[in-house]
């Protein structure tokens, strides 16, 4: 059976403005989002792609990676959205998670990846694994308080070891690409240990 290919464009409209958005784009999305820590503050940097007249930004902070509070909101027009953004959080201490929401003025938001900083504390965390339903490869986001080596183990739900591998991570936020194409279909647990023996886990499905 022959596949039929279609190409189309989406018209995004706001009051007094309309813009044709290419078929492979979304009206507004986060290109990059990073966090770094100095002595007195955490600095967040990000960039976006925006086809809206105005975009709204919401910066959120969490101490546990689950419950988030808003620490800043603002709007930016299309011209401003072409430039990088930054924000300093001078209230953070210890281990803190951040995420960014960006969307239109009607409240339709997309959420960025989560990044983490550690202050003077030690350790690491798996801030994201995408996608959680894997067909071949996955991106693992790890935030670490210092340069370190982490061991990653993948086991079945019955505890059978399937795969293990060692990676070097830098201080800050790291992205590790995992080739999981050889795994059979099923549900698996990804476990990661740093050099101090701290354990972090993520569950995922292989299709």
Q: Any idea what the shape is?
A: globular
The number of helical elements comes to 1
**Average pLDDT, all residues:** 84
Count the beta strands.
Answer: 18
Query: What is the terminal separation in angstroms?
Result: 24 Å
Query: What amount of the residues lies in strands?
Result: over 45%
Can you walk me through this structure?
This protein folds into two domains: 10-117, Immunoglobulins (Immunoglobulin-like), CATH 2.60.40; 124-206, Immunoglobulin-like (Sandwich), CATH 2.60.40.2550. The protein contains one helix and 18 strands. It is globular and about 50 Å long. It has one helix at residues 78-81; strands at residues 10-14, 17-21, 28-37, 42-50, 54-62, 69-77, 85-89, 96-103, 109-111, 115-117, 124-130, 133-134, 137-144, 148-156, 161-169, 172-179, 186-193, 199-206. It has 207 residues and is an all-beta fold. The longest helix is centred in the middle third of the chain and has 4 residues, at 78-81. A hairpin with a 4-residue loop joins strand 14 (148-156) and strand 15 (161-169). The two termini are 24 Å apart.
């Amino acid at each position: 059976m022959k596949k039929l290919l279609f190409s189309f464009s989406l018209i995004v409209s706001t009051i007094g403005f309309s813009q044709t958005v290419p078929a492979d784009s979304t009206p507004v999305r986060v290109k990059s989002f990073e966090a770094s820590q100095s002595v007195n503050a955490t600095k967040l940097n990000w960039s976006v792609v925006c086809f809206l007249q105005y975009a709204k930004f919401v910066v959120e902070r969490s101490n546990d990676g689950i419950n988030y509070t808003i620490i800043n909101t603002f709007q930016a027009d299309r011209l401003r959205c072409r430039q990088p953004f930054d924000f300093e959080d001078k209230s953070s201490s210890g281990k803190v998670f951040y995420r960014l929401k960006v969307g239109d003025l009607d409240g339709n938001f997309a959420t960025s990846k989560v990044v983490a900083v550690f202050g003077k504390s030690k350790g690491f965390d798996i801030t994201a694994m995408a996608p959680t339903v894997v067909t071949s490869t996955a991106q693992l986001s790890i935030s670490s308080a210092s340069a370190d080596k982490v061991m990653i183990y993948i086991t079945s739900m019955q505890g059978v070891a399937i795969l293990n591998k060692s990676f070097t991570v830098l201080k800050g936020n790291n992205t590790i690409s995992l080739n999981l194409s050889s795994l059979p279909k099923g549900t698996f647990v990804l476990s990661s240990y740093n050099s101090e023996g701290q354990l972090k886990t993520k569950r995922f499905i292989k299709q």
